Amino acid sequence: MNFEDALNIVSAALVSIGGGSILILGLSSFLGKVWAQRILGAERAKYELELEKYRDELSKLSFEHQFKFQRLHERRVDVISQTYSLLRTAYNAVQHLAFEPDDQLDKNVEIAKKAVVDLYAYFPHNRIYINYEVARKITRFQVELESTIGELEYHGYAYSHEDKFNRVQGKLSEALTDLELEFRGLLGESVSAEEL
Fold it and tell me: Biggest alpha carbon distance in the chain?
């Protein structure tokens, strides 16, 4: 056997062994990819299912939060509306007390006092729904109303018309307008004092 024959036999053996190893390597690579895709697909499905569960939970929490916020806003609107109505009623009663004839004094004092009592009965229990600074202004307005009623009741109509006008149409009216602007702001409306 010469060198050339030996080389042919060795190369044929290497080719036949190498071809099988290439076949085995190719087959194992294919199977590895298939298994990896199956494993990745299973993991992906598991995580997508978990992600969908979290999305549903987040959606539910968002809806609950939105519902609670809507109810809170509706309650605030009710409180603001009722408080403003009571403030306006009390202010109107003080106007009547200040500017109607003497023979109506007792009746107007009672109406004004009742309006302030109604305001005191409602507002402190619902104060939490109104912005703190606005609530403080309401309290100051209540005190000013009571003070004005007391002065008009005990000093009668000793005040000049101009003094009463300045007190009621000036100071109290400006305070009520300021509160109305604040309420409108709380409700989302932007209005200036000149527009009222």
Answer: 148
**What is the CATH number for 109?**
1.20.120
User: Residue 111 and residue 167: Cα distance in Å, rounded?
Assistant: 19
**pTM assigned to the model:** 0.65
Q: What are the structure tokens assigned to 190, written together?
A: 């932007």
Q: Please write the tens of the pLDDT for every residue from 149-161.
A: 888 777 765 666 6
C-alpha to C-alpha distance for 184 and 173, rounded to whole angstroms = 16
In whole angstroms, what is the distance from residue 183 CA to residue 123 CA? 14
Residue 114 resides in a domain: yes
Q: Which two tokens stand for residue 189?
A: 């409306």
Q: Look at residue 62 and tell me if it is in a domain.
A: no
Question: Residue 37: inside a domain, yes or no?
Answer: no
Q: How would DSSP label each residue in the chain?
A: --HHHHHHHHHHHHHHHHHHHHHHHHHHHHHHHHHHHHHHHHHHHHHHHHHHHHHHHHHHHHHHHHHHHHHHHHHHHHHHHHHHHHHHHHHHHHHHHHHS-GGGHHHHHHHHHHHHHHHHHHHHHHGGGS-HHHHHHHHHHHHHHHHHHHHHHHSTT-S-HHHHHIIIIIIIHHHHHHHHHHHHHHTT----GGG-
pLDDT, tens digit, for every residue of 29-50?
A: 777 788 888 888 889 999 999 9
Instruction: Give me the number of domains the chain comprises.
Output: 1
Residue 126 in tokens? 């619902």
